[in-house]
Amino acid sequence: MTTAGDLMVIRPRRLELPVWLIAIGLVLRWLWRGLWWCLRHPVAVVLVVVGVSLYREFGRAGVIVPVVLAAALSALWRWRHESSWWTWWAGPILGRFRQLFVYRRAWREAMTLCDLAKVYDHRTVLPELLRVRSDQALDVLTIRMVRGQTPEEFQKATANLAYAFGRRHARVYSERPDDPPIRSGYWALVLGAVDRLRFRDRPSVVYLVVVRTDALRTLVDPFDVPSVPDFTALPLARREDLRHWCLHLLATHVLIGGATRSGKGSVLWSLVRVLAGGISSGLVRLWVIDPKGGMEFAMGRPLFARFACKSFEAMADLLDEAVTVMRERQTRLAGAVRVHTPTLADPLVVVVIDEMAALTAYLQDVDLRKRIAGSLGLLLSQGAGVGVLVVAALQDPRKEVLPFRDLFPTRIALGLTEAAQVDLVLGDGARNRGALADQMPRWAKGVGYVILDGTPEPARVRFSYISDDHIRELAAEYSAPADAADILAQVGRETATEPARPPLPRQRRGPLLPDSLLNILDRDTDGGEPR
Ligand SMILES: Nc1ncnc2c1ncn2[C@@H]1O[C@H](COP(=O)(O)OP(=O)(O)OP(=O)(O)O)[C@@H](O)[C@H]1O
């Protein structure tokens, strides 16, 4: 048994160093730090060295003249090519400035109060701010997380972080928010290798995008109408980084969820506008259902191949006919292509439904409602691949109202009334990842959240504002061809005949017995050789 008297206290021997050795160690340490700083900031070092030399050589004029010249060159650069000016000149300088004087100064306090600092071994450990890049609208902070942290912890604190740095909006990305540039030409190989290094996967790092200037506060003008729409990138909205948000419409259905007066109309009309070139050429056919009696869409009637706005019977017929078109294409294209490419002979059919709940939940006639639900279910589950797409808007995304919610691969959430509705529209966890669609301010009409291709984090965008005058102009200039409604005439076209197939070799049928036993059974009754 151990008693208190048996215990030994072991203390490490203290190493007593002479004072001069400690002083040399400290000097070496500071020298090394200074050298390391110079290596990490070569531009600043060169500027200081050149500035000092010029000052010694020419006095004050040696500093003032180059500064004025640099400012004039910078102004000229900005005037001639603003985007490259931001990328290579103003962005890095502003980023550095804001890193030192905005983010570093508040870092410890912000991390601690946003619950992102950890305590380990009686010490507070903070996430490390590695870099800040700025552009016209955003600051992108590269942050090394504390060991054991996940990007979700930062995503939960997104709003707190934005306010901690004096802004209203921020977003947290687990991977770099920008895409690697497409390189071509002589240096493509070398630059591609550099990009691979820059865009490598860094699981210990998160990217906090702080919205410095909210580019979505101002109205977004309608986008140009392309004569041939690019169905893989239709520009519909402005992003926070001032770039266009483009919809990939091929082989997808689109669901737009938003409370009343949130601007669903501007999403639908922005889409109609960028498709207008295809509508007039016959590459796109819009079949529009407006259960609100034509309030929203009657003004653009000439653009639509089919339009139903008064009778629910007619709306059900329209959907049934869309299913017929889909079936015909399925039969014709089976085995030929995997995804339908729109052509003049085989146009893209886009069924636009404003306020879908009127068809799926509020319709009194049960039989009609069932008929509509059947057609919608078929279109949503099978139509995308054969170019019969559904774009639907609705106010209430609950399951009882829209049972087919999960069949829409592309979702857009405008302003919503409840936090729970955000995940219903955009998918589970979208609100935690920063889609605060239930906290839209009053001015934010046509502002919404979308999921960008390839990133799980939602992006905030504002759709272009299409006024009634724009709609009238569009209808006058890009009306659908006279025979646009006649797509059903194509149904019933000869379908490909069944290809001739060689008969399959016949399998030997019989009891499941081992070959040795079968041989015995197969012997001729007169004891001959096995067959
Ligand atoms: N992108 C936009 N930019 C600025 N204002 C917009 C935008 N979209 C819509 N608005 C304005 O917001 C208001 C509501 O728009 P809209 O009618 O399109 O909303 P909605 O969601 O379709 O409404 P409802 O559910 O009643 O049909 C209108 O006054 C419109 O002018």
Task: Explain what you see.
The chain is α/β, with parallel strands linked by helices. Among the domains are: 89-178 and 198-213, Threonyl-tRNA Synthetase, Chain A, domain 2 (2-Layer Sandwich); 234-490, 3-Layer(aba) Sandwich (Rossmann fold). 38% of the residues lie in helices and 15% in strands. The protein has 14 helices and 16 strands. The strands form 3 sheets. A 10-stranded mixed β-sheet has the order 8-7-16-15-14-9-13-12-10-11, sandwiched between helices. Strand 15 and strand 16 (458-463) form a beta hairpin. Helix 3 (61-80) crosses helix 4 and helix 9 (312-333) runs parallel beside helix 11. The longest helix has 32 residues, at 82-113. The protein is elongated and about 95 Å long. Residues 492-499 and 524-531 have low confidence and may be disordered. Residues 219, 258, 260-266, 395, 445-446, 462-463, 465 line the site of adenosine-5'-triphosphate (ATP). Residues 233-423 form the FtsK domain. This is FtsK domain-containing protein. It holds the Pfam family FtsK_SpoIIIE.
Brief overview:
The protein has helices at 19-40, 42-58, 61-80, 82-113, 151-156, 158-164, 188-198, 264-281, 312-333, 357-360, 366-382, 419-426, 468-477, 515-522; strands at 118-120, 123-125, 128-134, 138-144, 170-173, 205-211, 234-239, 244-247, 254-257, 284-289, 306-308, 348-353, 388-394, 410-413, 447-451, 458-463.
